[in-house]
Specification:
The chain has 184 residues and is an alpha/beta fold. The chain contains 4 helices and 8 strands; from the N terminus they run ββαββαβαβαββ. It has 2 domains: 70 residues, Ubiquitin-like (UB roll), CATH 3.10.20; 83 residues, 2-Layer Sandwich (Translation Initiation Factor IF3). Strands 2-1-4-3 form a 4-stranded mixed beta sheet. A 4-stranded mixed beta sheet has the order 5-6-8-7, covered by helices on one side.
């Protein structure tokens, strides 16, 4: 434990040295391209002068473009900058649609009207970006006629060929025949 704590910038201890933009005293290059708090470009400035200007304004000197030569630094409130970055990242994550697998169940003797309803539901799921598993359940003696299940699957795929592609062709597994459709 230190008896005399070393005085540091208020953000030096909150960030590891390799993560996030460099702030205040962590900017070690001699000259920077400076942008003031109003967004006006002040040109190439010595780092110590830019740091002094930021401290006089009660703000922080933040390196916003480290790959440029000289690096671009802006006088701003670093806490507000971090908040805005986190908000943008959160918005990007919430707007992503994660593909889900929707299962539609049919029987070999499914009525044509019910088949049309299932096709409409599958079309809606596929347009939204989800995958659709068509499952045909066989019972009793229906299992001796798998061609009826294949006929349903091919009809289903044919009706959805404008928005879907068959990812897994009909396959009989026990008493179920499954086919997987994905968005084109």
């Amino acid at each position: 434990m230190e008896i005399f704590p070393i005085l540091r910038s208020r953000f030096d201890s909150s960030l590891p040295p390799d993560r996030g933009p460099r702030v205040n005293e962590r900017i070690t290059i001699r000259q920077v391209m400076l942008i003031d708090a109003e967004g006006k470009n002040l040109g190439v400035t010595a780092t110590d002068v830019a740091l002094r200007m930021a401290q006089e304004a009660g703000l922080d000197l933040v390196e916003v473009a480290d790959r440029a030569r000289p690096p671009v630094c802006k006088i701003m409130d670093y806490g507000k900058f971090k908040y805005e970055q986190a908000k943008k990242a959160h918005e990007g994550r919430t707007k992503q649609h994660k593909s889900k697998l929707k299962t539609l169940r049919l029987r070999p003797k499914t009525d044509p009207h019910i088949l049309e309803i299932r096709v409409a539901a599958a079309r809606e799921y596929l347009v939204r970006g989800d995958k659709v598993a068509v499952m045909i359940q066989f019972r009793g003696r229906e299992l001796s006629h798998p061609e009826m299940g294949h006929a349903h699957c091919t009809e289903f795929a044919k009706r959805l060929e404008d928005v879907a592609r068959v990812e897994q062709f009909p396959r009989l597994e026990g008493k179920r025949m499954t086919m997987l459709l994905g968005h084109k």
